[in-house]
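Entry 14. Ran structure prediction on the chain below.
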Amino acid sequence: MADPVRPQDFGLSRLRDTMAMWTENPEVGTPEYMAPELYAVDNNIVTHKTDVYSFGVLLWAMLSGKRPWEGLKMVVIAYRVNVQKARPPLDAIPPARLPPKLARLLRQCWDAAPDRRPAAAELVKELLLVREQSARGPAPTAAE
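Output, structure tokens:
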């Protein structure tokens, strides 16, 4: 009989004392999911807020069923995200999968200013609210 699948063990993970790390190579990562500040040549500080941006892109990919910036080279992605302030298009997500509260949360995750992006606890709270509202069904319109 095969061993049952065991959950991932995070016993070796540790919390950091600080929220920012100095780095010589902030541009390391998967380009499609990298926060704009990681493309800035004069940036050498990486915070946990880059993960919030990446989470937003991942959530967009799951909801849209598409790959972000598919077919584009890193330099083109960097220019679009950091210089043009472009983000994956919300209209690529079917409207039934993107209630207004979730669209607002995605925009917050993608804010150009890392300090304005939501904290992880706030993300969880907002996602739970979206799930709760979705379970109740669409809100009635004024005409009903």
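The chain has one domain: 22-136. Will compare against last week's run tomorrow.
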